[in-house]
Design goal:
With 456 residues, the chain is an alpha+beta fold. The protein is built from 9 helices and 18 strands.
């Protein structure tokens, strides 16, 4: 064992009512303290996280860590001047010093007419229990057993598996409290459990690696160690006996976990910060066609146990169910109160991001999309950061599988795929029903009619 910090206590021992009581009293005192010192507006965010993480490699424990982290973030405004300070020391003296530091910073910052809390009348008022808190009471021994079992299933799956980069299990419980001088306050306890495995295989052409993971608020919804280990092995073995392909234009199919990155590019392009800075290729997309008619992207922030569920955003504004894209048309930008003021618009409850985004499907299964593609590239991995948010130009290193006559033929690596996101979005041919549920962004595979593939 290279590193070990063992604590036999449960990974989620937080007295939630007691923590909320402490945070509420401390934050109220801090807001009052800051206002007495001259602040016109104040907001405080505090979180405490407790968890257990274990990683194993080649059937031995590599790391075992038990953590307990906490932190206060204090933002004060002197009119339109803003100051921010943070601390992990929860003593009264340290918290007062953080407020003093934030006030001192604000004195020397330039006034910004768009600064300040979100408007008081926009604060969320309807608290919703989203069932995000599912502690599993796991201890170090059980965590080690889960990780070892997962890796063992992967290593034993086939003699083609030559090595392991490890399996990991983690269980974390968090309590987040937010309040501001408008009187808004809310506490959100939540849990997150995950299990993953990374394996290696080797043939005459070299080594290959791949992985699989599962994640959930409720441990009962995790895939089993057997499933995670064996999926990791299957994916790794499939990459053996790879070949190169010639430079060409061809159809491209993105698997769901890769298609998510395209939706991520879209979200970045309509983020208020990029819009007011005029640094987005979708600068003028509002109420215009961005995707084909069959594409709808619905935000559902109130999904029970959702990985991105929230009834209020990072500023205390109410989230709401809404279509970001409806029949291909962009209905809204993603605006915080600051970016909304910069654009002379209303905030949309997206401070901190989108809360569960569901992308519509054209109904095909993954196998049906492969058949529909006929011949082309199935992309299962992307590398690099070749996305120009101003122009939409897209160029990423990639690997995946070549498809011929509707059947997967062989693994392909050392290629680059290129296009323009605006064109890629506008010309999506189909979106599968093979939704990947391991994210707050749910989408199936995306089939595109053509991209430039740079190979040999």
């Amino acid at each position: 064992m290279n590193q070990q910090t063992v604590n036999t206590a449960s990974a989620d021992e937080l007295d939630i009512p007691k923590e909320i009581e402490f945070f509420e009293a401390s934050c109220e005192e801090l807001v009052n303290y800051a206002k007495k010192k001259g602040a016109s507006q104040v907001e405080v965010g505090v979180s405490k996280d407790i968890g257990l993480s274990v990683s194993v490699r080649n059937r031995e424990i590599e790391t075992l860590e038990y953590n307990r982290d906490n932190g206060f973030g204090i933002t004060v405004y002197l009119g339109k001047q803003k100051g921010v300070a943070t601390t992990s020391d929860l003593s009264e003296k340290a918290l007062h010093e953080a407020v003093d530091a934030a006030l001192n910073i604000a004195k020397y910052t330039q006034a910004d007419p768009c600064s300040g809390l979100a408007d008081a009348e926009l604060m969320a008022t309807n608290e919703v229990d989203l069932e995000l808190d599912w502690p599993m009471g796991i201890d170090a021994e059980k965590a080690k057993d889960l990780a070892l079992e997962c890796e063992a299933f992967g290593l034993d799956y086939s003699d083609k598996i030559s090595n392991s980069e490890g399996a990991s299990f983690s269980s974390h419980r968090n309590i987040r409290f937010y309040t501001n001088s408008h009187g808004f306050k809310a506490a959100t306890p939540s849990t997150r459990h995950s299990l993953s495995c990374v394996l290696l295989a080797e043939d005459s052409l070299g080594k290959q690696r791949d992985h699989w993971y599962t994640i959930s608020r409720d441990a009962k919804n995790l895939e089993t160690g057997k499933t995670v280990g064996e999926k990791s092995a299957e994916k790794t073995i499939a990459r053996l006996n790879g070949r190169q392909i010639k430079t060409q234009k061809a159809k491209v199919l993105f698997v769901p976990e890769i298609a998510r990155s395209l939706v991520g590019n879209f979200k970045a392009a309509i983020n208020g910060t990029n819009i007011y800075r005029k640094s987005s290729f979708l600068q003028d997309c509002l109420h215009k066609k961005v995707f084909p008619d069959f594409v709808t992207m619905e935000e559902q922030p109130l999904i029970k146990k959702g990985l991105a569920s929230a009834w209020y955003d990072n500023e205390g504004l109410a989230t709401k169910q809404q279509n970001i894209i409806e029949q291909g048309i962009a209905n809204t930008f993603l605006l915080s109160s600051y970016s909304a003021r910069k654009l002379n618009m209303q905030p949309t409850g997206h401070s901190g991001g989108v809360h569960n985004l569901l992308v519509s499907s054209t109904g095909q299964s993954f196998d049906q999309l492969i058949e529909e593609m006929g011949s082309g590239l199935l992309v299962t991995e992307l590398m690099g950061q070749g996305v120009n948010m101003i122009t939409g130009d897209y160029s990423r290193g990639a690997s995946g599988f070549w498809v011929e006559n509707g059947e997967i033929q062989f693994f392909v690596q050392e290629i680059t795929i290129a296009g323009n996101l605006k064109d890629m979005f506008a010309n999506v041919m189909a979106i599968g029903n093979d939704h990947d549920l391991r994210s707050g962004l749910l989408t199936g595979s995306w089939l595109l009619p053509e991209m430039m593939i740079a190979g040999s």
